[in-house]
């Protein structure tokens, strides 16, 4: 019994520390930085706009269908816990389920290969050519503009069966107003956050052990980034498009990790020709 109490206390202590580190890390702002950065870089925006448009259309259709067929049953379920406020958690639950379906479809058909190229483009714009060249051809055209070529590394597998199962099992947490939704975001953010740096780890050549140690040393920061990214992606209809801006934000964070700076390097940006098929 004493051992169980100590184990529980240790587990709760770790959760509280991670949560505290998440809120104080400031990395929850990077998904927002990604939105601003993409909007202020026309060459990057013009390349990803068609993909973002397709993601929005897919999300629109899936989300509308989910509300038509699943909202009422979940409203009745949430009424058991939330009473007259049940419409709020019920809507969040439907949005969460729609996000899963939208994410699966868009990553399978649109986003998968594009995310690595977007990540590389932002790193290159921030002056990390040597790092990007470890995983992709980088060329300079006659006008001096950098061009991203074909990848020379194995494409990343961005699907996580365990992640999807964990996400679906945690959706009922949203039936608890405010606290439940916060726990839902933190729980899933803790696991999904490091995924946004999968390309960074690949370019760095991290072993599985090095990757695990690096993530653990920044567990709170990755939790904050993942939770903020997930919150944006739950925005009705346009949420899946935020996968792109979160990828941009992750690349900006990777740049700061490389340079060890406290702010973004905008003084030495280079324009990059990004063509995404």
TrEMBL record:
<dbReference type="InterPro" id="IPR052786">
    <property type="entry name" value="Spore_wall_assembly"/>
</dbReference>
<dbReference type="InterPro" id="IPR059112">
    <property type="entry name" value="CysZ/EI24"/>
</dbReference>
<feature type="transmembrane region" description="Helical">
    <location>
        <begin position="164"/>
        <end position="187"/>
    </location>
</feature>
<feature type="transmembrane region" description="Helical">
    <location>
        <begin position="22"/>
        <end position="39"/>
    </location>
</feature>
<keyword id="KW-0812">Transmembrane</keyword>
<feature type="transmembrane region" description="Helical">
    <location>
        <begin position="79"/>
        <end position="101"/>
    </location>
</feature>
<keyword id="KW-1133">Transmembrane helix</keyword>
<protein>
    <recommendedName>
        <fullName>Outer spore wall protein RRT8</fullName>
    </recommendedName>
</protein>
<keyword id="KW-0472">Membrane</keyword>
<feature type="transmembrane region" description="Helical">
    <location>
        <begin position="51"/>
        <end position="73"/>
    </location>
</feature>
<dbReference type="Pfam" id="PF07264">
    <property type="entry name" value="EI24"/>
</dbReference>
<feature type="transmembrane region" description="Helical">
    <location>
        <begin position="234"/>
        <end position="254"/>
    </location>
</feature>
């Amino acid at each position: 019994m004493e051992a169980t109490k100590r184990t529980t206390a240790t587990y709760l202590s770790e959760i509280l520390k991670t949560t505290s580190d998440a809120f104080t890390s400031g990395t929850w702002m990077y998904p927002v930085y990604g939105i601003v950065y993409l909007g202020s870089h026309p060459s990057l925006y013009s390349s990803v706009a068609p993909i973002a448009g397709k993601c929005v259309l897919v999300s629109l259709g899936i989300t509308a269908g989910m509300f038509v067929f699943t909202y009422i049953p979940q409203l009745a379920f949430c009424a058991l816990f939330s009473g007259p406020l049940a419409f709020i958690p019920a809507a969040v639950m439907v949005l969460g389920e729609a996000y899963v379906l939208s994410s699966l479809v868009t990553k399978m058909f649109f986003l998968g290969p594009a995310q690595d190229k977007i990540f590389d483009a932002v790193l290159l714009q921030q002056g990390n050519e040597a790092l990007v060249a470890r995983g992709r051809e980088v060329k300079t055209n006659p006008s001096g503009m950098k061009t991203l070529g074909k990848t020379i590394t194995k494409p990343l597998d961005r699907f996580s069966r365990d992640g999807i199962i964990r996400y679906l099992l945690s959706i009922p947490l949203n039936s608890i107003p405010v606290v439940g939704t916060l726990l839902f975001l933190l729980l899933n953010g803790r696991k999904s956050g490091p995924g946004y740096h999968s390309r960074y780890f690949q370019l760095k050549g991290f072993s599985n052990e090095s990757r695990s140690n690096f993530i653990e040393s920044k567990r709170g920061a990755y939790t904050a980034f993942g939770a903020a990214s997930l919150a944006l992606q739950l925005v009705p209809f346009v949420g899946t498009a935020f996968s792109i801006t979160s990828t941009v934000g992750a690349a900006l964070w990777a740049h700061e990790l490389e340079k060890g700076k406290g702010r973004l390097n905008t003084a030495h940006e280079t324009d990059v020709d990004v063509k995404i098929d």
